[in-house]
Automatic annotation (TrEMBL):
The chain crosses the membrane at residues 20-40, 46-65, 77-97, 103-123, 135-155, 161-183. Pfam families: DUF308 (PF03729). The lineage of its organism: Bacteria, Bacillati, Actinomycetota, Actinomycetes, Mycobacteriales. This is Uncharacterized conserved protein. The keyword Membrane applies. InterPro entries: Acid_resist_chaperone_HdeD (IPR052712), DUF308_memb (IPR005325). GO terms for cellular component: plasma membrane. Keywords: Membrane, Transmembrane, Transmembrane helix. It comes from Rhodococcus coprophilus. The keyword Transmembrane applies. It comes from the Bacteria.
Amino acid sequence: MSANPVSPSDPFRSLFKQIWWVVLIRGILAVLFGIVALVWPDITVWALVIVFAIYAIVDGVVLGAHAVRDRAALAGWGWWLAMGVVSVVAGIVALVWPGITALVLLYVIAFYAILYGITGIVGGLRFRKVPDSGWVWSVIAGVLAVVFGLILLIFPGEGILSLIFLVGIYAILFGALLIVMAFQVRNSAKRMGVI
């Protein structure tokens, strides 16, 4: 028997059943985005902007829709919604400004990563008292996002190929952390008898 039993009336039972696949999709999208950036390092800035914009908008819509739909059971739903909004806004900025220069793209991605990371850290910390919620992975992914954003801000002149390489590596690591968190949440839901 678990040291932290969860009662059948616990609001997290249904949440865990629904949340794990959302986190998994976000992780897979991030890994795919990272692979695209690494496989085609000679990708133009315009193509990178479009790929980033699509990723950010889809990720933000999935996250925001989940937050709004499950707000009754999701204690920190506002942070999830904030992450979704930050993601969608970053994607829209990239689409509205397709002629964006490499340096401006770098700043958009850097600020996106920092804001996204902060909301991920705060959101993850809100779940720390929920048994097997995977909050640690959310915090680690948030810290990784903030560090990545700060590196881009501190070293902005390293060139577009360095930017693409950094974005690709970051996206793959971030996505892998989300995938691990998704399966941890899924296993927790199984132990609760929800799945």
